[in-house]
Amino acid sequence: MAEKKIGEVILEVKNISLAFGGVKALTDISFDVREHEIRAIIGPNGAGKSSMLNCINGVYQPQQGAISLRGRSFERMNSRLRLRTMAEMGVARTFQNLALFKGMSVLDNIMTGRNLHMKRNLLWQALRWGPAEREENEQREKVERIIDFLEIQAFRKTPVGRLSYGLQKRVDLGRALAMEPQVLLLDEPMAGMNVEEKQDMCRFILDVNDEFGCTIVLIEHDMGVVMDISDRVVVLDYGKKIGDGTPAEVRRNDDVISAYLGTSH
Ligand SMILES: Nc1ncnc2c1ncn2[C@@H]1O[C@H](COP(=O)(O)OP(=O)(O)OP(=O)(O)O)[C@@H](O)[C@H]1O
Q1: Does the Cβ of 65 fall within 6 Å of ligand 1?
Q2: Which residue would you say has higher pLDDT here, 133 or 126?
Q3: CA nearest to 89, candidates 181, 176, 173, 11
Q4: CA distance to 64, 96, 145, 168, 233, per residue, from 105 (Å)
Q5: Which of 17, 18, 54, 213 is deepest in the core (most CB within 10 A)?
Q6: What's the Cα-to-Cα distance from 126 to each of 13, 120, 169, rounded to whole Å?
Q7: For residue 53, what are the CA distances in angstroms to 23, 59, 199?
Q8: Poorest-confidence range of 36-50, 81-95, 105-119, 175-189?
Q9: Residue 264's pLDDT band (cuts 50, 70, 90)
Q10: How far apart, in whole angstroms, are the C-alpha atoms of residue 169 and residue 261?
Q11: Where's the ABC transporter domain (predicted)?
Q12: Is 51 near ligand 1, meaning CB less than 6 Å away?
């Protein structure tokens, strides 16, 4: 296999602190993400992983620190503008508690990820006429390619609510891919899956990274599954960074070992 090319820093997290009332969710967290790498953020329950992802994504505004994407910082923007700018700059995410439309088909759910790329307004789309029809056909072709890539052709017309949890997670990944992201944020992509489903998801994450060229930031509390696929790993515990490095470096970090031995994971 050709050696992977890791590029320049694309995302920078600098001295982030976030508190909810008296609860310190994150304290002075800094790390960076390089183009084309798979960067995992791991840690036991309550370590601050989701809070960190929500800061990166623009959902939460940290009280201190700054996050920049390709050198652009977001702290002066209100949350709506921040979320929109992030999406326009190619950041997409999946959700731990799936945010899919259960009654809609796999195809239509993945189509929702194309909205940002649709030029015609809703009226044109509703009429499905002329340029709007052409555009919808083009968008559908892109979605069909994602469906093929994720090997879910057999379920394209199936309402998502009828699929197994593992397949629903795959559809959620498809919806995020439909946004043509440069940076893909994955929120516990393997949570609730059996061993076989986890292996499939690992393979898809590696392929997305390789074939779509996406930079991937993923959070997970199961240390084992991410170690094999990540280029570098940040470890959080009680809102603090206790480790940062390659999987091999993190594995022999004493603080990381004791944080994990001290929990049920
Ligand atoms: N919206 C919120 N309001 C109040 N406290 C919160 C909120 N979100 C998170 N917290 C607290 O912040 C801390 C970090 O939580 P967070 O969900 O980020 O951790 P996590 O590592 O993602 O945990 P898990 O693996 O269980 O999902 C916890 O003490 C949590 O109770």
Answers
A1: no
A2: 133
A3: 181
A4: 42, 20, 16, 11, 35
A5: 18
A6: 42, 10, 29
A7: 17, 9, 23
A8: 105-119
A9: very low
A10: 29
A11: 11-263
A12: yes
The alpha helices in 150-194, defined as continuous H runs, are 165-177
1-90+181-265: CATH architecture: 3-Layer(aba) Sandwich (3.40)
**Overall size of the chain counted in residues:** 265
Separation CA 130–CA 252 (nearest Å):
61
Pocket test for ligand 1, best of 45, 50, 54, 221 (most atoms within 8 A of CB): 50
ipTM over 0.90: yes
pLDDT tens string 133-190? 777 777 888 899 999 999 999 999 999 999 998 899 999 999 999 999 999 999 999 8
Other C-beta atoms closer than 10 Å to the C-beta of 78 total 8
**What sign for the dihedral angle of Cα 244, 197, 57, 119?**
positive
Domain residue limits, the chain: 1-90+181-265, 103-179
CB of 18 within 8 A of CB of 56?
A: no
Establish whether residue 82 lines the binding site of ligand 1, counting it when its CB lies within 6 angstroms of any ligand atom.
Answer: no
Single-letter amino acid, residue 3: E
